[in-house]
Amino acid sequence: MDDDGVSSEQARVLRRVLDAAGIGVGALWLHYFRLGGEVGEVEVDAYLHHALRLPRFERDLVAHAANELIDRGSGRWALYACEVLAGDRGDGAGDHRETASDVDADGGAGEGPDGASGADGRARR
Fold it and tell me: How many CB atoms lie within 10 A of CB 112?
């Protein structure tokens, strides 16, 4: 998958997870900025609507900011680029690509098959 495809997938899943968690772009951007993000709120909003591509580092920082804001017990998380590329949910098998179509009906990405919430087997925040 090329970087445009990874970017699109990250944005698609992130937007659905944010909607399900009730987190607005303003709150996401502020937390992202506090973590050292370098693009403005308008650019983050444009990224979420597939109108702008962000560099991989910035996309992953936006995902990290979202993951820190999301309720720990929700079992939902924003994807990092490496997770999109690896195509798994943390079981290491690499045979499942978590896409927007895998997001459950209430918008969550869910837990991996082993109950772990992250690609590294650790629970997400």
Answer: 20
